[in-house]
Amino acid sequence: MYQDEYFHVTMPTVFAREDAPWIKEQLATLPAGMREKIAMAYAQAYQEAFDAEPVSFRQQNAARRMANRRLREFCTRYTPAVRGYTSLPPRV
User: End-to-end distance of the chain based on CA atoms, in angstroms?
Assistant: First the structure.
């Protein structure tokens, strides 16, 4: 009946609370076997960007921007390929 509402998505260890619904949505587009690996990569990118920003009040924004951008780019590139939506490159 409502099968899409009952799947479990492993969340990253560190993330902004406000981004949780979006992160779940993005991770749900990936195959179940990849979700945990990508969640760990998200947490690592978040922590690296957080630690790299020297100004304390900019740390969370820098971390969110970096980690969310990486997740968005990965999902938009990987999801169509895994579903078979890719095509051969044009011949020159």
Answer: 49
> Per the structure, how many domains does the chain have?
1
Rounded alpha-carbon distances, angstroms, from residue 77 to 32, 33, 36, 82: 17, 17, 18, 9
> Residue 2, class by beta-carbon neighbours within 10 Å (0-12 exposed, 13-18 middle, 19+ buried)?
exposed
Structural domain for 43, as ranges: 32-81
Q: What is the pTM of this model?
A: 0.81
Give tens-digit pLDDT for 59-82: 999 999 999 999 999 998 887 777
What is the rounded distance in angstroms from the CA atom of residue 64 to the CA atom of residue 18? Answer: 10
Q: Find the farthest-apart pair of alpha carbons in the chain and give their distance in angstroms, rounded.
A: 51
Is 90 within a domain? no
